[in-house]
């Protein structure tokens, strides 16, 4: 690699033409080349990916994204910050999918450690990681999936005193929590900081989802004034597939919010019953 070339010139030089199955032609660049440029120029990998996309050169890892969201929208994702509250059943899958999608900055909050009863559904949990910090393991996992993603692991219990400092500057906050009390704290902070909050919850074969923008009717509209400390899943159980489906839908909501593509689930609660294959929508307007 020539030493005097600019970053942009190196990107063009190391990229190649690729023809998609639909015959559309793209210029792409592989991970090895992106890493080589980042190392040579001493620039973070994410910044190299951003420079590539600005020149309409697509890192190969995002080729399957581009057909759905486009280059400009992938750039928005790389520039974005998403906070994931909880790294368990919902949060673990959320984190995994966001890393693969190419979110530029992930903030992960959880003060818990993995235990054996997490192994049935929490994708970050393995037998070898029992008693280890969830946020630490999640951070390692993200870097294995997508080393361009910047990760901040926050090993703290969420409370009304620390949440605003943690989520300030976020593009969107995602719910991987298991108590209504903590959800209310996060939702209130998001409302005050004008950050969209995507709520998801599971219980046995059922799950629910809604996206709350600042000023919208929030959790009080669906939960009343209940102060239940533990989630209903404590009693009903929480199968792996239920958590995976709701987590995936939460991620789609975040992608829609950041890219502007599609219509978020705003002012409406989606309730899914996987046991009977039913889908209900409740309007909050």
Question: Can you walk through the features of this model?
Answer:
With 285 residues, the chain is α/β, with parallel strands linked by helices. It has 2 domains: 7-69, no CATH class; 80-283, 3-Layer(aba) Sandwich (Rossmann fold), CATH 3.40.50. The protein is built from 12 helices and 11 strands. The protein has helices at residues 7-14, 31-41, 45-54, 63-69, 71-79, 89-101, 134-145, 163-167, 180-193, 220-223, 233-236, 240-259, and strands at 16-19, 25-29, 57-59, 81-85, 105-109, 150-154, 172-175, 197-203, 206-212, 268-273, 278-283. Strand 4, helix 6 (89-101) and strand 5 form a beta-alpha-beta unit. Helix 2 (31-41) packs across helix 3 and helix 6 (89-101) runs parallel beside helix 7 (134-145).
């Amino acid at each position: 690699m020539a030493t005097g070339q600019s970053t942009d010139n190196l990107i063009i030089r190391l990229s190649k033409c690729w023809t998609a199955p639909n015959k559309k032609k793209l210029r792409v660049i592989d991970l090895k080349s992106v890493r080589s440029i980042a190392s040579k120029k001493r620039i973070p990998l994410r910044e190299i990916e951003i420079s590539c996309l600005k020149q309409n050169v697509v890192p190969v890892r995002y080729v399957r994204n581009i057909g759905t969201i486009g280059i400009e929208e992938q750039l928005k994702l790389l520039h974005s910050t998403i906070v994931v509250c909880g790294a368990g059943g919902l949060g673990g899958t959320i984190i995994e999918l966001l890393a693969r999608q190419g979110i530029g900055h992930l903030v992960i909050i959880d003060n818990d450690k993995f235990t054996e009863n997490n192994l049935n559904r929490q994708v970050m949990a393995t037998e070898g990681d029992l008693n280890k910090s969830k946020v630490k393991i999640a951070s390692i996992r993200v870097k294995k999936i997508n080393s361009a993603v910047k990760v901040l692991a926050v090993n703290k219990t969420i409370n009304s005193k620390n949440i605003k400092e943690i989520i300030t500057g976020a593009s969107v906050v995602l719910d991987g929590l298991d108590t209504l009390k903590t959800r209310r704290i996060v939702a209130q902070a998001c409302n005050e900081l004008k950050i969209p909050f995507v709520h998801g919850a599971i219980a046995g074969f059922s799950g629910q989802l809604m996206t709350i923008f600042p000023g919208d009717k929030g959790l009080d509209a669906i939960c009343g004034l209940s102060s239940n400390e533990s989630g209903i899943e404590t009693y009903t159980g929480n199968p792996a597939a239920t958590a995976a489906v709701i987590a995936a839908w939460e991620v789609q909501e975040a992608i829609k919010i950041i890219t502007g593509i599609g219509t978020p689930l705003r002012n409406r609660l989606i309730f899914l019953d996987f046991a009977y294959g039913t889908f209900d929508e409740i309007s909050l307007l």
